[in-house]
Design a protein that fits this description.
Helix content is 53%, strand content 18%. It is an alpha+beta fold.
């Protein structure tokens, strides 16, 4: 059932119930008030007749036909005096008479009751006329005026209640339509954008209410989805471009190796070249897998780890490459610094940074891996003595497939994903990474991790330098 219909029916039902409850309360209150007015008149008339009896006895009581009914009853139930309209039968029934005689009545010692006679009703008041004589006075008055007013109110409620509910339903239908019209417009626009996204936004109503806030939120979500889609498209395009080059080279090498007339040396060169391209493909696939895991929730396996040990293992693994180029890899860290991190991913990030630093370090240079503790945070830095980052590259250093020198990076086997993976690992730890150039020359990359480190030994590191 549409929301507009549900709102209308619910509003109609609510109004109908409200009118019914309020109308019932009003009818009861009106009836009580009308009968209270009648009771006041009966009490006044009974007081007058009692004064007349005290003055002249029963003969002084006025019981003409055109007056309101009057009846005098003995304690034994015998009618002593009655108006012509009442006849010889007592109006007061026996239980009420016994209660009145025995004093089992509340208030002023009188009893008030209503008797319906055919279509007419009469309100009676019974009270002592003379206790010494054992006489009870019963006076009555017609309830036709009160009944008519009561009936008019009931008819008005029976007719006006459904009309009020119907009018309320019409108003609810109109109001809900006006309130939901922007929602329906946003639904149509969303359906159109689902079929063809032309870069537009959902129309935001000028009402400054919850619907406008919803439209603003949806537009922000739409912008984020478009940005994510553009990033994914660019990522797929760049990955396809990176994969195409080694695959094309690998296919060419295999085709050349398969030609007749190739000697053993040529085949060995072709296999070696194919192995190099295969290794490059493996590295690229591993990098892409790391980034894909980072987009989900399965990248990190956090556990207590010694950051100094992670830095030392990175330096030790890079020592062979550094020796080949006469570049020293040293560690500047406390003897022991433990924190809750993923040591494998942190090692991967440091490996990427050290590999980049070695690639751009001059001969006889130095690459420094430092671990520094701050208040509630830890910084890991990798610095080299090379030419540093190009100025225009720094704002885009951690973008995927972005290279400082595309030609040199590709010849060295770089894919432009190393720094992107470093940032991904840092962000996954809740930290950040920044790249800058050192004042005295060289590049400096810092990973800031907001982790609490403990059990720190500030003595010299077990590996003061790895060369």
């Amino acid at each position: 059932m549409p929301l507009r219909v549900r709102l209308t029916l619910g509003f109609m039902l609510g109004v109908f119930l409200l009118v019914a409850v309020v109308g019932l309360g009003f009818v009861l209150q009106l009836r009580t008030s009308l009968y209270a007015t009648l009771d006041v008149g009966l009490a006044s008339r009974a007081a007058t007749l009692t004064e007349q009896y005290a003055t002249g006895g029963l003969g002084a009581l006025r019981t003409f036909r055109d007056e309101e009914p009057v009846q005098v009853i003995g304690t034994d139930g015998r009618v002593v005096l009655a108006s012509p309209d009442l006849g010889p039968r007592p109006v007061l029934d026996r239980p009420t008479l016994d209660d009145l005689v025995a004093g089992r009545v509340e208030g002023d010692g009188s009893s008030v009751f209503t008797v319906d006679q055919h279509d007419d009703g009469t309100r009676y008041r019974a009270a002592w006329l003379s206790r010494a004589a054992g006489l009870i006075l019963v006076v009555g008055t017609g309830t036709d005026i009160a009944d008519t007013a009561d009936e008019h109110v009931e008819v008005g409620l029976l007719i006006g209640g459904p009309i009020a509910a119907l009018l309320a339903g019409i108003g609810a239908w109109w109001l809900s339509g006006a309130a939901l019209r922007p929602v329906e417009r946003m639904r149509r626009q969303s359906a159109e954008l689902a079929e063809h996204d032309d870069g537009t936004h959902l129309a935001v109503p000028a009402t400054r209410d919850e619907i406008a806030a919803l439209a603003t939120t949806l537009n922000a979500l739409l912008d984020r989805q478009r940005q994510a889609l553009e990033r994914e498209r660019g990522f797929v395009a760049d990955a396809s471009h990176e994969l195409r080059t080694p695959l094309a080279t690998l296919r060419a090498e295999l085709e050349l190796a398969g030609r007749p007339g190739r000697d053993r040396a040529d085949l060995a060169d072709a296999v070696a070249s194919a192995a190099t391209e295969t290794e490059r493909l493996i590295r690229l696939a591993e990098d892409l897998l790391t980034l894909a895991r980072a987009d989900g929730d399965g990248l990190l396996r956090v556990r207590p780890a010694d950051l100094t040990r992670v830095a030392a293992e990175t330096a030790r693994a890079a020592a062979a490459v550094g020796d080949a180029r006469d570049v020293d890899v040293v560690v500047d860290a406390p003897r022991h610094l433990e924190a809750d991190v993923d040591p494998d991913r942190l090692r991967q990030a440091l490996d990427n940074l050290v590999a980049n630093a070695l690639r751009h370090s001059p001969e006889h240079g130095r690459v420094t891996v430092a671990v520094v503790r701050h208040d509630g945070a830890v910084s890991l830095t990798v610095a080299d003595e090379g030419p540093g980052f190009p100025t225009d590259f720094l704002p885009h250093a951690f973008e995927r497939f972005r290279r400082a020198d595309s030609a040199r990076a590709r010849s060295d086997g770089g894919s432009g994903l190393g720094l992107a993976i470093v940032e991904t690992i840092a962000v996954a730890h809740g930290g950040s990474v920044r790249a800058e150039n050192r004042p005295d020359g060289g590049a400096l990359v810092t990973i800031d991790l907001p982790v609490a480190a403990d059990r720190t030994d500030t003595g010299p590191a077990p590996v003061g330098g790895v060369q």
